[in-house]
Write a structure and sequence with these properties.
The protein is an all-alpha fold. The protein has one domain (about 1-80). Helix content is about 85%, strand content about 0%. The protein has one helix and no strands. The chain has one helix at about 1-80. The model has no long low-confidence stretch (mean pLDDT about 85).
Length: about 90
Amino acid sequence: MSGLLGLGATTWLVIFSFLFVLAVLWFLLPFAVFGSKSRLDKIVNELRELNRTMKEASEQNRVLIEQQKLLLLHVSRALPKSRSEIGIP
């Protein structure tokens, strides 16, 4: 009989320990959530700035590509079309 009583006490001790740890974690949860909110706000602001910078870089890249196309077209018109035009037999 004492063996069953010891098993019951150990079981209750494990259950109460688990509930105590769960209660402590439940108490600390709001502090963790609200403590990370400012960090998440900073990350969101940095992502917005990064997106704006990427859009500017993309637009600059688009302009440079258009300028290169125009330059290539201009240079290709200035180059001789065949070897005979430059004097190579």
